[in-house]
Amino acid sequence: MDLRPLLAPRSIAVVGANDKAGSYADAVLRNLAAAGFEGPVWGVNPKRSEVHGRECVPTVAELPEPVDAVVIAIPAAGVPAVVHEAGERGCGGAIVLSAGFGEVESGRAYEDELRRAAAEHSLPVCGPNGNGIVAVHVGAAAWGDRLAPLEPGGVAMVTQSGNVGVNALGSRRGMRWHTVVSTGNETVCNTADWLGALADLDGVRSVALFCENDGDGAALAEALAACAERGIGVAVLKVGASEAGQRAASAHTGSLAGDQRVFRALIEEAGGACAEDFHDLLELAKALAEPRARQAKDGGLAVLTCSGGDSGVAGDEATRL
């Protein structure tokens, strides 16, 4: 599947478009306007003719033209039909913000229907049960939470947790983002798919991965290899090292965590860097985005600081590691 229409869309439709404060669709439309997205944006809502000054049509089938990204923010029961309609219309892909799928027993049938609809049209889907995609490099902020202004840069993120993405985008760490993808349940496209696609985008210098399941090990290794070949650093944080963490991941996105030692070995063998916690993940990704940070091949460490206290802490931490 070609994920570029979702990672760098030229046109967008928002299904369930409304101006109700706090709703996903309202946030997406406001974010697109604030980010200065220059392409066409349509709303899809049979009860509205316009929302936030954007023209609305009753259905995806009635869009004036096929769009690159169909953002879906309606109850789970209606999502598979919209995915099918987007495929029929020739759209590039779908971003499903809606929850209520495989992460809960009552939604598993909806997730199966969504998967079949996407497969019928080879339609890439981000989600469901995610926060969307922020393509900062093209001003396409198809994101279900309100965003502060973002300065574009070279750091990308792929996260199964939408809130991890929210926290990353809101962090005050001097991060300059290229793209942030909240993959949710990964019903159609998984972490390896997104990582491989990001490796092909201009301007990506590092990627932070937040994983709740092991995914497809072979595909992930191939995507990591593609990043290594292009000089893109990859930092990885995997949850599920404890029984409690595994239970939380399963309840959140329906993910099943495997052997943490095997996963870590795969990441490191394929050239990735394993993070210990969320803060470590962001700082690793920020450092790896600097080309000079990846030049040393034969080990060795230098610490440059104006502080004797910092030097002592750095020496202790280096020895511990």
Give the helices and strands, then pairings.
Blueprint: H1 4-7, E1 12-15, H2 24-35, E2 41-44, E3 50-51, E4 54-57, E5 69-72, H3 79-89, E6 93-96, H4 108-121, E7 125-126, E8 132-135, E9 140-143, E10 152-159, H5 162-170, E11 177-182, H6 191-199, E12 206-211, H7 217-229, E13 233-238, H8 243-253, H9 260-269, E14 273-274, H10 278-288, H11 308-320
Parallel strand pairs: 1-2, 1-5, 2-4, 5-6, 6-7, 10-11, 10-12, 12-13, 13-14
Antiparallel strand pairs: 3-4, 8-9, 8-11
Description:
The protein is globular and about 65 Å long. The chain contains 11 helices and 14 strands. Helix content is 36%, strand content 19%. With 321 residues, the chain is α/β, with parallel strands linked by helices. Helix 3 (79-89) runs parallel beside helix 4 (108-121) and helix 6 packs parallel to helix 7. Strand 12, helix 7 (217-229) and strand 13 (233-238) form a beta-alpha-beta unit. The chain has a 7-stranded mixed β-sheet, with helices on both faces. It has a 7-stranded mixed β-sheet with strand order 9-8-11-10-12-13-14, with helices on both faces. The protein has helices at residues 4-7, 24-35, 79-89, 108-121, 162-170, 191-199, 217-229, 243-253, 260-269, 278-288, 308-320, and strands at residues 12-15, 41-44, 50-51, 54-57, 69-72, 93-96, 125-126, 132-135, 140-143, 152-159, 177-182, 206-211, 233-238, 273-274.
